[in-house]
Design a protein that fits this description.
Elements: E1 3-21, E2 27-45, E3 50-55, H1 69-81, E4 87-92, H2 103-118, H3 125-135, H4 139-144, E5 147-151, E6 156-160, E7 166-172, H5 179-193, H6 204-212, H7 215-221, E8 223-224, H8 227-233, H9 236-246, E9 251-254, E10 261-265, H10 268-279, E11 286-292, E12 298-299
Parallel strand pairs: 1-8, 3-4
Antiparallel strand pairs: 1-2, 1-12, 2-4, 2-5, 5-6, 7-10, 7-11, 9-10
Helix pairs in contact: 1-2, 1-3, 5-8, 6-7
Bound molecules: adenosine-5'-triphosphate.
Length: 300
Amino acid sequence: MSSVTVRVPAKVNVQLSVGPLREDGYHDLVNVFHAVSIFDEVVAKESEGMTVSVVGEWADQVPVDDGNLAIQAARALAKHAGRTYGAELVIHKAIPVAGGMAGGSADAAGALVACNELWGLGLPLEDLMEIAADLGSDVPFSLLGGTAVGTGRGEQLSRLATGGLFHWVFAVAEGGLSTAKVYAECDRLRAETGADVPWPELDEALLAALRAGDAPALGARLANDLQLAALTLRPDLADTLDEGRRHGALGALVSGSGPSCAFLAGDADHARDLATTLSQFAGCRAAVPAHGPVPGAAVL
Ligand code: ATP
């Protein structure tokens, strides 16, 4: 095989509960991931060396050296296989960069699946999941897709059944937010108030809404413990959330560490209308309708 193309989705966290800061600097999380239909494509072609290039709207914001998560993933896979392999990786980027939608993790997962196929390794998903967990806490979910609960640092995953499709709009803001800075701001705000941080628990009402495919119930339970920190760093996002709510969003929240904002719509038509409205809003660079859950990284 001389070229393999893999499609891999963005994610939104429909519940992100952040526990107290641990001694190792991480937080215990309860993280309900949901894969949505905004996709990057990762193409892996036969090559002697290891290179990566990026095309698409966000290309200028992605490193094309060893800092690229896709190249790190390909190297980790080659190391796991105990061989020196090469690949020319080309990323077609549609997932906003540094937008809280796990775009880098998606590309890492895409590179794992593409190179596994290109190099004829035939490793099962469980092996790829282990390599993925070492690359970053969102990478295993990008492999798995669908809807899943992550605990620990987010990397211990179990799949969740959902009762149908949910329709979303993602409002993309200008500029990015660093995930590390948003966690640091969350810790700072918590230290300032001095309140006890509860142990993160899975929201049973949210699970029931997902299982039932009940969009109004899901909209009412969307929750992100990083939202206050993201809004403190980017106060303009509050206006974007309000604008979506004013136009009938069933729920609105900052996606992960932001600055993308996610809006739950009643159906596909509502999502299209809401995307049109939000794309005209001054605070939004773009607004994109999408649905979920969708599968994880898959060979095309
Ligand atoms: P998360 O939701 O997992 O917190 P994010 O969506 O906020 O992540 P990413 O799009 O993954 O953020 O980008 C985070 C940083 O990673 C960017 O600043 C970017 O320079 C770097 N990066 C490295 N490789 C990639 C890649 N293949 N695609 C996107 N960003 C990458």
